């Protein structure tokens, strides 16, 4: 059909400006296409030529720059919410799996001939609590986001809030893991290597933290509109 490329060109330009979850982006672009096609069809029924009808539909829909800002806010919010849900589940689960692994292969600290010093136990308990605190913060952020959305807070502001919470939560988790490993090296480096399964679990925990850090960083990148 003559002028079929007008809407296509508009959607291509819009697609190039958007960053975020692919499925959400595809849904947004599909909704935009449906709206543009319906508007163009109405204008054609009103007597406009096909190309003019599509140009009118595109002009009525809005400039790419403005629509891209609106859609990017939705994409950033979708990614932020998904990241918070991931933190809510993955961090406590990773901690539980590591702790079960450690208890099975190593046992309780008090079973050693020379129990670790009190300051080490303080760090260990703080690290044990971090995963649950992070999960609680993520849950509160998700609930608060729903309330703020109902209050009319913009999607961009909500996405930035989710990004800030995610970055802080991941940072606290990484700090806890690094602190306990550093403390263990200081007390007795051999304990990190005494059980290959525990060593593997520790490395896996670090990889999980790094992946979560990437997701948290993307929250801030996607919401920078």
Structure overview:
- The chain has 225 residues and is mostly helical.
- It has 8 helices and no strands.
- The protein has helices at residues 5-17, 22-45, 50-61, 64-105, 118-150, 155-188, 190-193, 196-222.
- The longest helix has 42 residues, at 64-105.
Structural classification: mainly alpha
- Proportion of β residues? under 5%
Mean pLDDT: 85
Number of separate strands? 0
- Rg, please? 25 Å
Q: Write the H/E string, N to C.
A: HHHHHHHH
Low-confidence stretches: none
Q: In which range does the helix fraction lie? A: over 70%
Q: Globular, elongated, flat, extended or rod-shaped: what is the shape? A: elongated
Treating each run of at least 4 consecutive H or I residues as one helix, how many helices? 8
> Ends: how far apart?
36 Å
Biggest sheet, in brief? none
Topology:
Elements (H helix, E strand, L loop, with lengths): L4 H13 L4 H24 L4 H12 L2 H42 L12 H33 L4 H34 L1 H4 L2 H27 L3
Features:
225 residues; mainly alpha; 8 helices
Give a quick precis of the structure.
With 225 residues, the protein is mainly alpha-helical.
């Amino acid at each position: 059909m003559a002028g079929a490329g007008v809407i296509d060109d508009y959607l291509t330009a819009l697609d190039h400006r958007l960053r975020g979850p692919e499925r959400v982006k595809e849904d947004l672009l599909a909704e935009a296409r449906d709206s543009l096609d319906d508007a163009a069809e109405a204008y054609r029924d009103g007597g406009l030529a096909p190309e003019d009808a599509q140009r009118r539909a595109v002009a009525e829909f809005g400039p790419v720059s403005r629509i891209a800002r609106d859609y990017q806010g939705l994409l950033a919010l979708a990614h932020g919410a998904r990241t918070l849900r991931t933190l809510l589940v993955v961090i406590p689960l990773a901690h539980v799996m590591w702790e079960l692994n450690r208890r099975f292969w190593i046992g309780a600290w008090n079973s050693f001939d020379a129990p670790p010093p009190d300051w080490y136990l303080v760090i260990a308990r703080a690290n044990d609590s971090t995963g649950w605190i992070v999960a609680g913060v993520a849950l509160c952020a998700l609930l608060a986001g729903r309330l703020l959305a109902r209050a009319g807070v913009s999607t961009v502001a909500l996405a930035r809030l989710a990004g800030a919470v995610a970055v802080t939560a991941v940072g606290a988790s990484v700090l806890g893991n690094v602190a306990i490993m550093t403390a263990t090296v200081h007390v007795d480096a051999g304990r990190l290597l005494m059980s290959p399964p525990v060593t593997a679990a520790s490395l896996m925990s670090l990889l999980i933290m790094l992946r979560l850090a990437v997701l948290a960083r993307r929250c801030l990148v996607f919401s920078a509109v």
